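User: Predict the complex with pyridoxal-5'-phosphate.
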Amino acid sequence: MTVWKEDAARDLVLNAGERLALLTRGEGSYVWDGDGKRHLDFLAGIAVNSLGHAHPAFIKAVSTQAATLAHVSNYFATPPQLELAARLKRLTGVGIDGRVYFSNSGAEANEAAFKLARLHGGAERPRILALENAFHGRTIGSLALTAKKAMREPFEPMPAGVEHIPATIEALEATIDDRVAAIIVEPIQGEAGVVELPEGYLAAARSLTLKHGALLIIDEIQTGAGRTGQWFGFNHEGITPDAITLAKGIGGGFPIGALVTFGAASSLFTPGSHGSTFGGNPLGTAVSNAVLTEIESAGLVENAAARGAQLREAIVNIDSPLVTGIRGRGLLIGIALAAPVATAVVAAAQDRGLIVNAANPSTVRIAPALTIGDAEIEEFQTLFAAALADVQASLAASEEDKANAS
Ligand code: PLP
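Assistant: Here is the predicted structure with pyridoxal-5'-phosphate placed in the model:
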């Protein structure tokens, strides 16, 4: 075992499996490991590094703000914080009465959303609806919203009131009533394997929540910041939610999250009802301003849409019998496989110098930086085709072994 593996195995908490590599440096869509091997990073820290690695705008924002004012407390406002709140209000189209709460992660943004739902619901509306297969984070509140039993059960009891319903309009119609405080949904379920909501779901959820006086909360933590080819996933459906949660791509690698509230939902939090020491500090908000400014000025939302289409074509052109479908939008793509071999494909890709991830046993997820161009896509196509061929060859070899043995 190399030294770093021993160190990791001895010192890091045992919540994750063995680390795949020791990464030491990054630039654009590439990272290098401790052996000097270069990897094409098509995961981007799980949809986080919007501008890739070590982007000049990111470096400048971190270093300039660190040299100016890194942290105060929420007793004070700071210019980057106010600028980011105004920017998020403009980009989300939340309107003058919208408000922004800053957190440090996605889970914390969803904790704030959970509390928003409770404030809205009070004793009259104890029910909160979330979807089967949903992933909303690992803190206790966000975990209560997360569907996967294996993640939840060791930590039960969960906060009361959350029900997971199938992601169909019929299930929502059948379940919602006037005792529902809120429904929370991801426009595309990233962790579940890049699974889109059924056609018209968000519009139906909007009209049903309005009818029953419930909040519609959209978790844009993985889909936001331009990743799907629009600023936010809900923009594809032309609806206005009551709140959205953000993290990942808005910081481009700096830990920051946000809850953006629309309309009447903006007056639910009152002084003392929620808070965070680090949330919205000048360093994090300055970096997020720089990342979002670059996404906007370099046309990276449009790039995500165009490169997403190009990538789909590249995957189809590989013409592998292992690939049975492509899901997702823009640069959040799930590649459906004919067999539960996603882990093997990911390992073969890594051997060849390509980082992708297994979102579920038969889906490979790619979520590259929004900055990718022709060169990265061509290289991805070559490496991914080779990884698929490797796995196909080993599947064929084991079939042959089985045939010989019988
Ligand atoms: N919500 C969604 C849709 C996510 O994809 C994630 C992370 O993968 C989270 C919430 C949790 O975010 P974090 O890991 O920053 O707490």
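Residues 46, 105-107, 110, 135-137, 186, 190-191, 219, 221-222, 247 surround pyridoxal-5'-phosphate (CB under 6 Å).
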